[in-house]
Amino acid sequence: MTGFGNNALKVLTDTPFIDLIAVFTSAKQATPFPYYKCEKLETVVRRKDILLFEGLSLKDEETQKVIKKLAPDLIIVSSFNQILPKSVISLPKIGVINVHPSLLPKYRSATPIAWALMNGEKETGVTVHFIDDETVDTGRIITQEKLKISNNDTDGILRQRLAGFSEKVLREALYKIKKRGSKGSLKQEESEATYFPKCSLKDAIIDINKPFVQIVNKIRATSPYPGAHLKVKGKEYIARKAVLAAGDNPKIEKNNDKILAVKTRQGVVIFHVIDKKRLWEGTRVVDLKKEERFLRQYVNLRNRYENYLLTLRADFSKTKEWLKETEIEIWGLAKGKILLGVVILYLNKNGEIAFFARYPNKGIGGRLLDVVERNSRKKKIPLIWAWVLKDNFVAQHVFEKKGFKKGCISNRSYKGLIKQGIRYTKYLGKNRGDHEK
Length: 437
Fold this sequence. Notes:
By secondary structure, the chain is of the alpha+beta class. It has three domains: 4-192, 3-Layer(aba) Sandwich (Rossmann fold); 206-275, no CATH class; 284-435, Gcn5-related N-acetyltransferase (GNAT) (Aminopeptidase, 3-Layer(aba) Sandwich), CATH 3.40.630. 27% of the residues lie in helices and 27% in strands. The strands form five sheets. A four-stranded mixed β-sheet has the order 3-4-5-6. Strands 7-8-10-9 form a four-stranded antiparallel β-sheet, with helices on one face. Strands 11-12-13-14 form a four-stranded antiparallel β-sheet, with helices on both faces. It is globular and about 70 Å long.
């Protein structure tokens, strides 16, 4: 992905004994990832005239055939948001290596930088290790270097520092591999391992009852994105800075931020804040049958949910034909040129719906359900319903929050697999009893 991927690309193109044959990038992001100014990785790859594959799933058999045909000696992973299946790990002659921004085995996580700041660590680093199997961040260590964490580091600043620092560590790892192959790598000490989940919006909420240092660390760990969320007297803000007031008349630094004085367990804290803006604010509803420029984004978005879909991966050209031939309505939420989510109404399936949100837990799913409900009422459709996989807890929460009634559990089969799901229904007509099944 853009960020660490750019630095890895620089090392690979500058190292004389490396012949870079292809680059695989993740689906495009709508967030400001990597949270610092950086040219898009795919743009750099195209400029260097390197073979580029964008937004493919490594679980897909066709993608694996492509990689096998490339016949790589070594695969280098850097900030890639997919877990490599065994069928890909086994393809390169030497193996697969990963650039991880922590001192493994500590901070095995998709967001180790944020957690290191959240926990007030004084140092972190970069580890280059082999990927031996599908377990995350557990492989043999090739090389590792430490980096001091500054008091001024935020997630964005530290991420950029580590990305630059990773060039040295990756280059050293490549020379070691050239000299001795996979020999000499060290097994991780499992007794020292620490695990952290991917940071979510819940982790960005400030609890004013926590010690002041934890409040400050939370602001650092969530800046510039998604920002530390502070709620005062029913209004929500993004906190950019916090200072523990001294005395009754604290000196307040003036800038363009709003200033809030909040009583906490350690005294009054002066927060520098901005008003919280919801991701879906400023969006518009688009009809994907009429605005095809968003169609490719929809295909990529839909394929990100392949673990929750009992259908084949979408293809752009086939999707265009499907939209023309199938009796459906399909709407999206767009912010500028970015498609934040899509909701589908299957007119040929008695009001069945499905939605895909680019980011979970940010209100997009709820807004999409508002769109489909409003349009269904206009069409005098008596009910709308969805079949949600039993383990898709995020979608279940969205449906329940929007007043859908949780029904019975049923099974669906796909490629010989039996999956359990829950039916969620919302009645829009006046005579609910007429539509009960």
